[in-house]
Amino acid sequence: MSTRINLLIDRREKHNADRFLKFFRTLSVLPLFLVLVSSISLLLLSLNAPIADLQAQRETLRRQQAGFSDKQAEYLLLSNRLTEAKKVVNTRVDYQQLISQVRKQFLGSIVITSLSIDGAKTLISGSSPSLVDINASLLNMENFSKEEKRFSDLTLDQLSLDVKKGVYVFAMSSSKK
Amino acid sequence: MNLPISLQNLSARLIYLRYKRYVVPFILVISSIVLGFFVVVPQFNDYLKTKAQEQSIAEENNKIVQSIQILSSVSESDLSSDLSVAVAAIPFQKDYIGVLGSISEAAAKSGVGLSDFSFAIGNVSKIDVNTPLQITLQVEGPMDALEQFLANLSSSLPLSSITKTDISGNSSQIDVVFYYKEKPSTPKELSSTLTPLSLQDKALLQKLSTFTNGNEAFFFGSAVPPVSSVETASSSAQEASGSST
Fold first, then answer.
1. Is the dihedral of CA A142, A144, A146, A151 positive or negative?
2. Dihedral sign (CA B67, B73, B75, B80)
3. Under a CB-based contact definition with an 8 Å cutoff, are residues A58 and B64 in contact?
4. What pLDDT does A55 receive?
5. SS3 breakdown of chain B: % helix, strand, coil, rounded to 5?
6. Which of A155, B32, B122, B149 has a CA between 20 and 30 Å from the CA of residue B18?
7. Read out DSSP for B44-76?
8. From CA B168, how far away is CA B140, in angstroms rounded?
9. How far is CA A72 from the centre of its chain?
10. How far does the CA of residue A160 sit from the closest CA of chain B (Å)?
11. Average confidence (pLDDT) over A61-81
12. Average pLDDT in the A142-148 region?
């Protein structure tokens, strides 16, 4: 039978337990305090929100704006028309400039007999008594296509001699992918 | 007989006696958590909602102030004149007079002749109100004059764009579309946001104001329609796609 059983609580242990209890009590009050402070703060913040003032200000401004209702309708209409106009102006192709640029590539004795531009596809036919001029024009068109990136391919569809008229007749097409 | 129950009670009592000092703080902690969940969290959510509402009203007010500033800064006469230019550019409905005027004026200025042209309208009852008005023009004149005609047409109102040109000698066929768009429903709410015209908008407006107005040209300009015939094809959409005069 053991004779070394200590029936008294160790003093140090009791001291630690008391300290822990004190700490725990303090700690347990802290969340309650925090909850209380947060709740009161949030309540005050909500009560002090200037919504009513802002709503009153809005009503005043709306009344003021109502005085411009006709002008506003015109202004909105103007914005709407300009949006539509911008779409057209920004997307339309300048055919006059395109025709002018294409024509500039055909110099000398070349006569353009037909020129058709349909979206990305261009068909040109013409005639010339000089093969040198036709050759120069083809090279011009090639350079124009490369520089302006207007056409992605350029095809000489026809090159023949019209014996009666004594001219070379050509037809070429180009397109943009 | 009662010994086990007594022992249970005894052990429960012992546990209680041992931990009774912790009971109250523990209940406090639990209460704090419960209060936090059921009071503070909803309160915080309400606060956030209030803040969001406050911000939304403040933004709305700012927009109204901005609108008022914009409207105050624009003079009535400038606005009316800008609007008339913009509406002439993109009319609310098919503007045949404007179209005829601008074509005629462009032709008169460039010296080309218009032999025929046809309007491909389609089935009026079924056609989309915003479908552009397609016109095929037969133009007579040298290529230089034709170029000038195209340039003139591009710088006239209503706005148009050329979709196809087929030039053969002194005779050309040109497909043009003229744009229009129906009037938008007037905003009922006065709080509709206005944004100031951008520099791009102002530049476009400036550019459009220099264009020839087809309506004015028709009534007051030099343009006497040099057309031998004008036919309005009002048939079904299928018929219209192949219609010509």
1. negative
2. negative
3. yes
4. 92
5. 55, 20, 25
6. B32
7. HHHHHHHHHHHHHHHHHHHHHHHHHHHHHHS-H
8. 10
9. 28
10. 19
11. 87
12. 82
The model's pTM: 0.71
B31-79 confidence digits (pLDDT tens): 999 999 999 999 999 999 999 999 999 999 998 899 898 888 888 888 9
Distances (CA, A) of A53 to A46, A48, B57, B158: 14, 11, 10, 49
Average pLDDT, rounded, for chain A:
85
The pLDDT assigned to B225 comes to 44
Question: ∠ CA A131-A154-B151 to the nearest 5 degrees?
Answer: 95
CA angle A34, A37, A43 (to 5 degrees): 135
Q: Does B16 score more than 60 pLDDT?
A: yes
Cβ-based contacts of B21 with chain A (< 8 Å): 21
Residue A18 or A32, more confident: A32
Q: What confidence score (pLDDT) does residue A6 get?
A: 63
- The residue with tokens 């943009």 is A176
> pLDDT category, B244, cuts 50, 70, 90?
very low
| Residue B8 CB contacts under 8 Å (≥ 6 apart), including other chains | none
State CA A162 to chain mean position distance: 54
C-alpha angle with apex A26: A29 to A33, nearest 5 degrees?
25
Residues of A in contact with B26 (CB under 8 A): 28
Q: Which of A113, A120, A127 is nearest to A176 (CA)?
A: A120
Q: Which residues of B touch A95 (CB under 8 A)?
A: 150, 154, 162, 165
